[in-house]
Amino acid sequence: MEVLWRFRRDGAPAPGALLLVALRVGVAATSCASGLWAGVGGVVAPLLGLGVVGCVLWLVWHISFMYQWPYIEDWRRGTVRHENVACQNFHTELSTGKRSHREYVFDLVAEDGTERNYRIRASAMKEKAEDEREPYASVYYTCKGEEDGLSIVIYEHTGIITEAWTNQAGQVH
Known about the structure:
By secondary structure, the chain is of the alpha+beta class. The chain is 32% helix and 34% strand.
C-alpha cells in the first residue's frame, strides 16, 4: 500500500490536498483532507453503531414479547370454565428425538366447540393420575373412558388447565 500526501512547511496537510492510496489490485481511492465533509465520518460511525445496537435490542425485545404474548393475555383475561368437556382421539404416540418416550395425545372439546390438542408424557400423566393429583386424574380417567362429565377451568390462550373435575354419581374428584 502506498500513501502520498502534499504537506505544508509546518507539517500539516495543505488545504484541499488529496490523499491517494494505491492498492495492490490497482484501485485508487481519493479523500479530501479538509473541508465540509472531513468530519462526517466522526459523526456517522457512532450513529451507525447506535442504530445497529438499537435494531438488535428491538429484535430481542420483539421476539421475547411475541413468545410471552399468550401468557400476558391469560394474565389479563383470566380463566374460563367449560362444562361437559369431551375427550376425543385419545391415543399413544412415540415421541421422536434422542430421548424418545410415549406420549398421550388427545383433544378436549367443550360444548361451545372450543377444541384444544394436548400432548403429555404418558409416564408422568399416569403417575399423577394414580396419585389422584388434579387436573391430571380427572382428565386421564375421562379420556380412558372410565368417567363422564368432565369440567375444566382453562387459560384460553395457553391451554393450561388449572382445575378439572368429574361429576360421577355425586362424587367430585
